[in-house]
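Much of what follows relies on a compact textual record of a protein's fold. A record is reproduced here so that you can trace the correspondence yourselves:
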Amino acid sequence: MKLNYYLKKVQNIIYKKKFNYPKTTVDYFNNNKKITVISFSSIGAGRKYVQSNEFFNLTKKYNVVFVKDITRSWLNNIDISYIKSFLKNNNNYAIGYSMGAFNAIVFSTIHPIKKVIAFSPQFSIHPEISKDDTFLNFAANINRWKYKKLKFSNKTEYLIIFGDDDKEKYHMNMIPKQENIKIIILKNCDHKTASKLKKLKKLEKTISKFFSN
C-alpha cells in the first residue's frame, strides 16, 4: 500500500490539476437559535466539484455552519480560525458523513463541541496507519499531515454510526472504548450509512433524538 501511495504522489505532481477554489468555504445560516451545528462535508462528487451543503434540514432547528473541505484533505487544509469566527459561544454541535465525520470528530478536539454525530468516519486514511486504500488517491494529495487519525475529546459526547461490512468494521474497531463514545452498527449496510437511514426515513429522527437529549 505504501508503494501505491508514493506512486500516486508522483503521479499527482506530474499531472497536477488546479482548480480555482479556496481550500475552505463556509455557508452560515444564522437563525437566531441557541445552538449552532457545524456540518462538515464529505468528498461529494469528486475534486472537480464543490460539495453541497449536507444535512441541510438542520437549518429548520439550528444555526448551521456548512464547512466544505474543498481539497478533500481530511481537515489538514481547512482554515480552522475561519470556522471558529462563526462560533460565538460554546453551545455548538457537529455532524458529518465519511470524511466529514472524521473532520467533525477531530474538530471537537480543537474547539469546544458538546455533541458530535458521525456517520462512517475513517479512523485514518494515512498509509502508515490504515490498511484501507479506498481513499489513497486523496491521501496522496495531502502534503502536510496535521491530523493523521481520529482523536477524541473527553468533554464531547459522540454518536458514531457504522455499517457492518468489512471496511466499516475495520475503522470501527480502531475507535477507543470510552464512556462518551456510543457506536451504532447498521445491519446489511455498507459505507452509505446516512443514505441508508434516509431511505428508512430514520435519519432526521436519529439526529434530532441525539441532539435533543
Observations:
- The chain has one domain: 2-15+22-212.
- The CA atoms of residues 45 and 84 lie 26 Å apart.
- Strands lie at 24-29, 36-40, 63-69, 92-97, 115-119, 157-162, 181-185.
- Helices lie at 2-14, 80-84, 99-107, 136-139, 166-172, 193-199, 203-212.
